Amino acid sequence: MITKINSCGLRGMDGYIISVETSVSGGFPAWEIVGLPDAPVRESKERIRSAMNTAGYVVPGKRIVINLAPADVKKEGACLDLPITVGLLTASEQAFCGNLSKAMFLGELSLDGAVRGVDGVLPMVIKAYQSGMTEVYVPEANAEEAAVVEGVTVYGVKSLKQLADHLTGRARIRPTVIDIKEIFGRASAHPYDFSEVKGQENVKRAMEDTRHSGYDAQRRTHDSDASVPQSAPHGFGGGAVWRRQQPQARRDQPVPQRSAVSGRAARVPQGRA
Predict the structure, then answer these.
(1) Which residue of 16, 134, 167, 262 has the lowest C-beta tally within 10 Å?
(2) How many CB atoms lie within 10 A of CB 111?
(3) What is the 3-state secondary structure (H, E, C) of 176-189?
């Protein structure tokens, strides 16, 4: 049996839809994940196996193939644990979940079946809304963030068993509803914002990408070549970033000069013009 479950990934700051296709067929027992998965996605097999056992399900002893489409885009992160598990449950006929064509799933699984929070939920839910999705299942820790997007029903999931009971109709999960004005009112507590910076669109976009990628930001100055600790701006990574001191030429050695023709450094002998 073949099933398709909707999920989402990140490409920079934008989301893109991932179709998790699951095939469970007869043959020698094996489990393959194809579609350019990175290491966390490949390692999801062990997390999913343990989580399913905890929730009262089993990984079928058949040939399992998980295809992550589009196949030419690298899939990163552990947010695909939940959609892969839902696809496996439906393809192996252990859970009859009805029509899930308008639902999207995001979440990382722990070994005991709990659903852990993931990064980048807001742009992925925005993409789900733009793609016509009506239901979004995210970790409970990300439910308020996802509920900011109007037009989709957001369900905060605590565990795999809770999700399976909801999809099979045994116990329903209450949708997450928030006060958007109150959420955005919290931003007034921060005295500085990019809205106060006029222009510099490329710089602001670079800082947003830096923060999302988890890297530190480094401020460079031109007034001195000394080693000065440049702390990353607030909210863009912690710690001080050191700039190395540039090596200085010795007085008894000629200074390298650039050739106007080739652009290569050339040594000028002393005593010649």
Answers:
(1) 262
(2) 13
(3) CCCCHHHHHHHHHH
Does residue 271 register a pLDDT over 90? no
Structural domains of the chain, ranges and CATH numbers in brackets: 2-181 (3.30.230.10)
> What is the per-residue pLDDT across 99-128, written as a single tens digit (0 to 9) for each?
999 999 999 999 999 999 999 999 999 999
| Burial grade of 116 (CB within 10 A; 0-12, 13-18, 19 or more) | middle
Could you give the CA distance from residue 190 to residue 253 in angstroms, rounded to a whole number? 53
Q: How far apart are CA 141 and CA 159, in angstroms?
A: 12
Please say whether the beta carbons of 217 and 207 come within 8 A. yes
What three-state secondary structure class fits 125? helix
Sign of CA dihedral 206, 207, 209, 215: positive
- The Cα 206–Cα 271 span in angstroms is 49
Q: What is the pLDDT of residues 73-102, one digit of tens each?
A: 999 989 999 999 999 999 999 999 889 999
